[in-house]
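Two entries, shown back to back:
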Amino acid sequence: MTPESKIYVAGHRGMVGSAVARRLRTLGFENIITRSSAELDLTNQASVNDFFDQERPDVVIMAAAKVGGIHANNTFPAQFAYDNLAIALNTIHSAYRNGTKRFLFLGSSCIYPRLAPQPLKENCLLTSELESTNEAYAIAKIAGLKLCEYYRKQYAVTYHSLMPTNLYGPGDNYHPEHSHLLPALIRRFHEAKENDSPTVTIWGSGTPRRELMHADDLAKAVVHTLNLDDPPSLANAGTGVDHTILEIAEIVKEVVEFTGEIKTDPSKPDGTPQKLMDVSLLERQGWRASISLQEGVRKTYEDFRKSLSEDTLRER
């Protein structure tokens, strides 16, 4: 990837895509192509073909996806499977057909088996059953990364994948029901503080362990990986450190300055018991995360409050 490369960042308005675009511009990349979902429906094959026919990017960074938390994945599995399969199929094939030599597909740590040995290594993929609460999304992401692997093998194009751990940061989705763990906690604790509530209740037992990484760290990993001449077909991107959900809630509580009590609700699903990534492969390639969870939560809460005051909070 050179400063002259024509780079398509798919999903540039989302948390990950916007972080990647910011990082590229900071490094002096100017030929960045973007399209909003209103301008280009990535689930529509004809529209995607037309876009690639016209633009012919040198590099594609696939940060677009239909995403959500446990509740959303449980409630809309068909939609999560269809949309993410369509996005992967349409973009990977159209990119190849129009001469794109470099394609980076971003997946998720939920692709790994529910009870895989911790920390999760890349080679544990497809060794046992998935977590049922996000199986549909995981299967679609596995299909996308495998398609990249097969195109690389058959057509000698550098199509490869990064599997990020759970992400958070500016531009996250704060929908009251469909958001992921950290934005859901930030909103819940903030509203409890504003309403002088005595308690905040978190889903499940609070004992499952989660690894969280700031989106700006992922953006750095994306650029680093794209500058490797022969990147791994699949590499984990994470911090290599995890916390219990209750510990994460305690960090959020401290940052938000909520003075009440945290309660758990064991009647709600816990999800996967632990998801900690083995990040040694990417570290051997010269990259390591640098933003601590405390620092990242503080920055994210500042962005949350700013978005609230400007009425720009993302809630979808």
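entry 2 starts here
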Amino acid sequence: MNGDASPARQACLAVSGGRIAAIGETGEARETVDANGACLLPGFIDCHTHAVYAGDRSDEHAARLGGASYEEIARGGGGILTTVRAVADASERQLIDGARPRLATLLAEGVTTIEIKSGYGLDLANELKMLRTIRELGATLPMNVVSTFLGAHTIPGNHSHESYMDLVVDEMLPAVAAEDLADAVDIFVENIAFTIADMERLFAAATGHGLKLRAHTEQLSNMGGGARAAELGASSCDHLEHLDEDGVRAMASAGSVAVLLPGAFYFLGETRLPPVAELRKHQVPIAVASDLNPGSSPINSLLACLHMAATLFRLTPGEALLGVTRYAAQALGLDNEIGSLEVGKRADFCLWEISAPELLCYQLGGLRPLAVYKDGQRVIHEQIFMDNLNG
């Protein structure tokens, strides 16, 4: 899975010190596991989520079913701001307890690394509360949790555009960096959110703090955010339904990963597909993620999104599987550590009792790995569920 999803010839893998020590070599070992012909795949990586939140937005879903658009709901004070109010009312402990079952469910599907964004705080105290929650989840769960600061998610009603960007860049970002609460920054570049100039300012400041760069771009319109984010060094540009070929070329030139989010496409009832043919043509790496969040993708299943990537976006099974392993790792800037079965990388992998990996893109629901290994240690699903549901 280091760029090719075809079956490997090797039939054994050795682990030492939490990393893959050898592939295809036999010899003495302290412990051996007979996989009985099961399929061995890298641990899955959900590289774009908003999995820490409070409340739900089922009423907005009903409004969309009645004909309201995502943009209309947002401009009316709903959307992201609904969750912001719920997060403000929740304690850090309540956020942790709410997120644990979501992450346990993903872990049971074979997800060994998850990225989680803030962005439902929108003031200093609540953004820090969210990021501390994310760090605590990473410290207490048997999965790798990557933290992203998304203070530039939307503009709260008590700020002008300019005053809120001042708050994000001049107050929030330094505080986040001082506590080492984030691995990356992100921004929602869209006509209902932030501008390319905002992104340039944020990215310059974030680079000064040593943070990786990511961007939500071209979800609802083509503002040229994907091309500019790539030029500025973003490891990924995410959503991309309205990305044009100039943007694709810029991403290809910069080496940015295209993160496709079929769950949001499905749940919002979108009809404009991301430019998969152009991404292939220019050899832009394609990742797939759940975008788990309460508003536009309340889909607590990366496997469901893997299926959607194949059925809705017409990714091949190989492309989809590489999208939740090799290229998801690249989107996070972690491709030297995870995402493929190679000597020296973390021993994050799963055993699947399936006839072929393509079955994971074909079947919707009812699939679980036989075993999940994180840093070479087996995860027992039932115990993880009980431990984390009980806090």
